[in-house]
Amino acid sequence: MSERHQEFQSLLKSNAEAVETLLAALLSGDMQTDEIARPERLLAAMRHGVLNGGKRLRPFLVIESAALFPNVERDTALRIGAALECIHCYSLVHDDLPAMDDDDLRRGQPTVHIAFDEAAAILAGDSLLTLAFDIVAAPETRLPDATKTALVLALARAAGIGGMAGGQALDLAAEKQAPDTDGIVTLQAMKTGALLRFACEAGAIIAGAPENERATLRRYGETVGLAFQIADDLLDLTADAQTMGKATGKDADRGKATLVSRRGQAWAESRLQALVKEAEALLAPFSHRAGILIETAHFIANRRN
Amino acid sequence: MSERHQEFQSLLKSNAEAVETLLAALLSGDMQTDEIARPERLLAAMRHGVLNGGKRLRPFLVIESAALFPNVERDTALRIGAALECIHCYSLVHDDLPAMDDDDLRRGQPTVHIAFDEAAAILAGDSLLTLAFDIVAAPETRLPDATKTALVLALARAAGIGGMAGGQALDLAAEKQAPDTDGIVTLQAMKTGALLRFACEAGAIIAGAPENERATLRRYGETVGLAFQIADDLLDLTADAQTMGKATGKDADRGKATLVSRRGQAWAESRLQALVKEAEALLAPFSHRAGILIETAHFIANRRN
What we know:
The structure is a homodimer.
Chain A: H1 3-26, H2 40-50, H3 57-66, H4 74-95, E1 105-106, E2 109-110, H5 112-115, H6 118-137, H7 145-159, H8 164-176, H9 181-207, H10 211-238, H11 241-244, H12 250-253, H13 259-263, H14 265-283, H15 291-302
Antiparallel strand pairs in A: 1-2
Helix pairs in contact in A: 1-3, 1-4, 2-6, 3-4, 3-9, 4-6, 4-9, 7-9, 8-9, 9-10, 10-14, 10-15, 14-15
């Protein structure tokens, strides 16, 4: 393992620990202003769905895209990252439900509806989604109100019918009728792409950066989003369940079409390398400050679990 | 029917129509900035869950509490009311699911998971919850960013684990183990009270009113919230399914304790009248401008469906 790669892994790990610590605090029994009670079992279900030692890639992207700009407090970016992670985790909790993807296992642990019950999983997801907007708007998030409004709007658009939730609807429909290639591209841009794009754009929003830099980070986010999805589909095709900590080969079992299953492994590997080059080119204006985000693109394209 | 009562009913109706029109526009096929696609079937499920001719009591409270203040545009209050209604409707869609209250019928129509399927109902609820925050933050909502931030925070707290979602968790738990009287009060304050309180407080937030007026409208909201719940429990005990357009007597069937089942119909009726008096007293500082909100308290306490 190269030194640069080791440094990256250690940064990923320290960020993930900071995210985990903040999320644990946000999901403690401490009530916030205006809250009437925090029912224990629901709180436990939320914690189960969130505090599971994930890689915290989305918060990492928020924190490191914000770190491109000298005026951003790291703790502030961390809070926005934690809000985004609440949305990501809620989507996993709901997607795992029997009526959706029906998964019993995630990261080697029972999913929320298995560890608790379906009602608890539905409500834990709902509460995590709601908490995300709470975190952005809360006074502890030290950002101008105009920035908070922009973040709420961008996050809602990324997560809602026009983004992630709509993508999950398309994904379920795809099991019944296989989409064409354009359909797969739209589905993936929504289901996984929208949150990853938000994660990268969020850095520029938090910094109050000019529109051209915001657009650049959006495009970087779209590029790593595409890479993430191709790497994921490739892993589903080639990895085994033990490495992944979850069921694999499920796409094929369900006859679910992916770009990788349509075009093959060689195409996927070459496309991944092209996307990494594209991400590097996009980040050129940020010169040496972009080192970590470039490394991130490599990591996303080459990850093996 | 008194003339005043007729005027009130006609105002309730015209507000509900305005809310319905706005919600239909927000749930049209027109994509918003940053949205990638609006999958048709999911959109149809969202519309089914929202555009069902409800009384729109919560938006009414937002609009009429905002109308206490001369500086508020009615259209702006309407948008916040519509956002709140999205939250209310999402909660009904999720509460009706088989894993929760398992209801097939709402307002005489099949519930979303019956008309579509469970996955669509879960995703429609998720998307409506997300849309609520989108509406508040969107540029079409002409409010200062500080006001939007305050609304997002108050709405999230009212809807999340410390409010409505937490209340639903307690309600499900109550079917297994009957809570004591304090437990019932907390459950109801969360499950239905929190959104009603927000609805009334929202008028003052939208207006940028001073803290004492905000506190007054909060207390008014708590008071009509209590009245709403007692009237609801009373109706469940006494009304028939045809008048209600939904199953009744369900609380008793489930052995679910309410304050009304514990203390009886006479207590409930006298308590309702006391709450109306309390609401009137709270609104005294707004003098003649408070006529509609006073009428609303009477309406909530005396409703028969």
